Amino acid sequence: MRLILLLFPLLLSACFLAPHKIEVRQGNYVDQEMVSKLKLNMTREQVLFAMGTPLVTDPFHPDRWDYVYLIGEPGDVDRQRGVTLEFADNKLVRIGGDVVLDDQGVQLQVKAEPQ
């Protein structure tokens, strides 16, 4: 019985040695379905409908929208996606970032896979 009383505080204190870190998701969630809806010459309103509000709108570059999505624990980002859209005369003229343009449209690339 004494052994149990001595071991119980030790076992209980072991629960507090490694705190649980919550996975943090920040930015705009960007998936393949959203990116494949993008076509050149779309209006800003059509892009807003397909992708949502951009995370970054630079006041010095009003014709550039950045969509950034980060996943990971604090201090250790596992996965990152970024899509940059540029407009001219209210029309989408360039799609950049972690995407590939091919015959079938726009394909999303992930910089790093989670481990």
Structure description:
- The protein has helices spanning 2-14, 32-36, 44-51, and strands spanning 24-27, 56-57, 64-73, 76-88, 91-97, 99-102, 105-108.
- With 115 residues, it is α+β, with helices and mostly antiparallel strands.
- Strands 1, 2, 3, 4 and 5 form a 5-stranded antiparallel sheet that branches. Strands 6-7 form a two-stranded antiparallel ribbon.
Q: Stretches where pLDDT falls below 50 for ≥5 residues?
A: 111-115
For the termini, the CA-CA separation is: 44 Å
The biggest sheet amounts to: 5 strands, antiparallel
How large is the share of residues in beta strands? 35-45%
**What integer value in Å does the Rg equal?**
22 Å
pLDDT averaged residue by residue: 78
Kindly give the count of domains: 1
The beta-strand count equals 7
Order of helices and strands: HEHHEEEEEE
